[in-house]
Amino acid sequence: MTDAWPTEIKVHKDKSALTIAFEDGANFTLSAEYLRVESPSAEVQGHSPADRQLVSGKREVRLQEVIPVGNYAVRLIFDDGHSTGIYTWDTFHQLGREHETRWPRYLQELAAKNLSRDLPGTVRRH
């Protein structure tokens, strides 16, 4: 636990990312896709590391809503219907700090399973 405390949370205008600044000076911009595939929900993380689900096809996912949960977290609602992840301030801080290792690992896992960031049959937005 870092006891991270946010000073600002802002969803980007196009809802493709969230920027969060912390009292310790850390400032992270996290894409909706990254937040979705790293959701702390049991649906994604499982109940043990062996149960973790690899989520594909989320390149175009957007944030639909950010709902406060007490004074320690928010629930992110995504436009693909996913809404069960509770993102604590520590979770955001950890996702930001570890982005440089988590994201390449995610891309490698997708490639190893011949999965894509795109939904089957979709044309990418530019």
TrEMBL record:
Domain Gamma-butyrobetaine hydroxylase-like N-terminal positions: 9-92
This protein's UniProt keywords: Iron, Metal-binding
In terms of superkingdom, the source organism counts as Bacteria
Name of the protein in question? DUF971 domain-containing protein
